[in-house]
């Protein structure tokens, strides 16, 4: 069974702000599960038993080598991708960049 297709998936995103109040965005890779080539706030899917907060911190560290601090949460929203018949519920956190030089560690995602 596939998240977002066979059942509603849960995605966690981060609006990351650095000390200069600049936002960090990522571009989806050619091998991403959906919406290839689009710009987004980075994040990932929730794994069974994990917390929202641990998920976003882990995903940002694994994919970009950055440590973040969660400051606030935004309202959850439905993310529908009709052309791919996918449905996700997305939660997004406002975060500060704490450390680590941003780098692409998982280029296919």
UniProtKB/TrEMBL annotation:
Q: Which UniProt keywords apply?
A: Hydrolase
InterPro entries attached here?
Nudix_hydrolase, NUDIX_hydrolase-like_dom_sf, NUDIX_hydrolase_dom
Pfam families in the record, alphabetically?
A: NUDIX
Q: Does the keyword Oxidoreductase apply?
A: no
* ATP-binding found in the keyword field: no
Q: Matching Gene3D superfamilies, A to Z?
A: Nucleoside Triphosphate Pyrophosphohydrolase
Please state every residue range assigned to the domain named Nudix hydrolase: 7-109
Gene Ontology molecular functions: hydrolase activity
What PANTHER family does the database record attribute to this sequence?
Answer: ADP-RIBOSE PYROPHOSPHATASE, DIHYDRONEOPTERIN TRIPHOSPHATE DIPHOSPHATASE
Task: Identify this protein by name.
Answer: Nudix hydrolase domain-containing protein
């Amino acid at each position: 069974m596939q998240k977002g297709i066979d059942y509603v998936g849960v995605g966690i995103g981060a609006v990351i702000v650095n000390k200069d109040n600049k936002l960090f965005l990522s571009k989806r890779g050619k091998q991403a599960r959906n919406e290839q080539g689009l710009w987004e706030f980075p994040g990932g899917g929730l794994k069974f038993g994990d917390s929202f907060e641990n998920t976003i911190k882990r995903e940002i560290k694994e994919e970009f080598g950055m440590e973040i601090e969660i400051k606030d949460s935004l309202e959850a929203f439905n993310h529908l991708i009709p052309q791919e018949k996918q449905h996700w519920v997305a939660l997004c956190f406002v975060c500060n960049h704490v450390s680590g030089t941003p780098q692409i560690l998982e280029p296919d995602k």
